[in-house]
């Protein structure tokens, strides 16, 4: 099942190119905010699933092109982002120590929204296309063997990055408002046969950028869930982003239209706005790709 929020954060199910309003099926879920609602739906999904399916089946649906698809996780409590978690197509032989950072929930935007570059003097702004795993139940000290039991589903997740600020500060580089396009849906885990073998692609103005497989992770999904939940309790509706392969990384700048697609997760599209109209070289940032892969020495303030 593909769960979406549309228009004024009405809960829907995406089937093909049609969005079906299922808000009546979840009207008894206590909530104040849209995030409260989706977190409650996720937590009680075993009970609600049949009601949601029945509501979707009797709905005529609305063409996807006629609605505004919102972020399916509008304000997660925790957004854990795994850092340097890919082997860069085998270039890295020894995984770096496992690491992560928290990204502000205020950075989340949805399909068709705009990522706004701040006026700070970053050396460059990058896109990072990532697979996000959505937590399905309260998760603390989850074992790797049971990790998939705690994942409700998956999302397309973009980690916007400002380089060269604050001596490499993750907070300064990652948590700007609008720096996390996500969606267009949460795809339930039963729809994804093997999340550890998914093709991840991105295009900027139609030009290919990221194109990698999740099999290239240094620390696999199970280990990331185990490690993250050892550090802190994660709740339904929280998300773990499993990192990116930097070999397709590139700059984002004013006027760009960026698209991302992971197998089975549909396509996420967002725009980029920069009031200063700064420019960087187009195409893949080979210098960054080589540095992360260890083909050139690190600089003083490395990116992620």
Low-confidence stretches: none
Number of strand elements:
19
Order of helices and strands: EEEHHEEEEEEEEEEHEEEHEEEH
N- and C-termini, Cα separation: 33 Å
How many helices? 5
The level 1 CATH classification of the largest domain is: Alpha Beta
Per CATH, which architecture of the largest domain?
Alpha-Beta Complex
% residues in beta strands: 25-35%
In CATH terms, the superfamily of the largest domain is Fumarylacetoacetase-like, C-terminal domain
CATH topology of the largest domain: Fumarylacetoacetate hydrolase, domain 2
Name the helicity range.
10-25%
Radius of gyration: 19 Å
3D shape: globular
Largest sheet: 12 strands, mixed
Structural class, judged by helices and strands? alpha+beta
Structure description:
With 304 residues, the chain is of the alpha+beta class. It folds into two domains: 2-70, no CATH class; 79-292, Fumarylacetoacetate hydrolase, domain 2, CATH 3.90.850.10. It has helices at 34-43, 45-58, 170-174, 221-231, 286-292; strands at 2-6, 10-15, 18-21, 62-63, 69-70, 79-82, 100-102, 108-109, 114-116, 124-126, 129-135, 151-158, 161-163, 180-188, 199-204, 207-213, 239-241, 257-262, 267-273.
What's the SSE blueprint?
Blueprint: E1 2-6, E2 10-15, E3 18-21, H1 34-43, H2 45-58, E4 62-63, E5 69-70, E6 79-82, E7 100-102, E8 108-109, E9 114-116, E10 124-126, E11 129-135, E12 151-158, E13 161-163, H3 170-174, E14 180-188, E15 199-204, E16 207-213, H4 221-231, E17 239-241, E18 257-262, E19 267-273, H5 286-292
Parallel strand pairs: 6-17, 8-14, 9-19
Antiparallel strand pairs: 1-2, 1-5, 1-14, 2-3, 3-4, 6-7, 10-13, 11-12, 11-17, 12-14, 15-16, 15-18, 18-19
């Amino acid at each position: 099942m593909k769960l979406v929020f549309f228009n004024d954060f009405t809960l829907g199910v995406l089937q093909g190119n049609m969005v079906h309003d299922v808000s009546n099926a979840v009207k008894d879920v206590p909530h104040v905010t849209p995030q409260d609602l989706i977190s409650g739906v996720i937590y009680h999904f075993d009970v609600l699933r049949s009601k949601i399916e029945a509501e979707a089946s009797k709905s005529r649906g609305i063409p996807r092109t006629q609605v505004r698809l919102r972020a399916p996780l509008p304000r997660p409590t925790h957004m854990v982002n795994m850092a340097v978690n890919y082997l860069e197509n085998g270039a890295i032989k020894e995984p770096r120590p496992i690491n992560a950072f928290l990204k502000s929930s205020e950075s989340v935007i949805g399909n068709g929204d705009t990522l706004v570059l701040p006026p700070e003097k970053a050396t460059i702004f990058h896109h990072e296309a990532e697979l996000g795993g959505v937590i399905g139940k309260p998760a603390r000290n989850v074992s790797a063997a049971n990790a998939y039991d705690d994942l409700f589903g998956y999302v397309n997740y973009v980690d916007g990055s400002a380089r060269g600020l604050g001596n490499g500060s993750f907070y300064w580089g990652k948590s700007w408002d609008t720096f996390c396009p996500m969606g267009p849906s949460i795809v339930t885990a039963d729809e994804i046969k093997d999340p550890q073998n998914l093709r991840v692609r991105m295009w900027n103005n139609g030009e290919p950028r990221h194109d990698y497989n999740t099999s290239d992770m240094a620390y696999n999904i199970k280990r990331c869930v185990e490690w993250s939940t050892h550090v802190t309790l994660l709740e339904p509706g929280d998300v773990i982003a499993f990192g990116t392969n930097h070999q397709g990384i590139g700059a984002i700048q004013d006027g760009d239209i960026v698209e991302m697609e992971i197998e089975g997760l549909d396509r996420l599209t967002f725009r980029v706005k920069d009031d200063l109209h700064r420019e960087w070289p187009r195409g893949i940032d080979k210098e960054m790709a080589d540095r992360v892969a260890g083909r050139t020495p690190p600089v003083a303030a490395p990116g992620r």
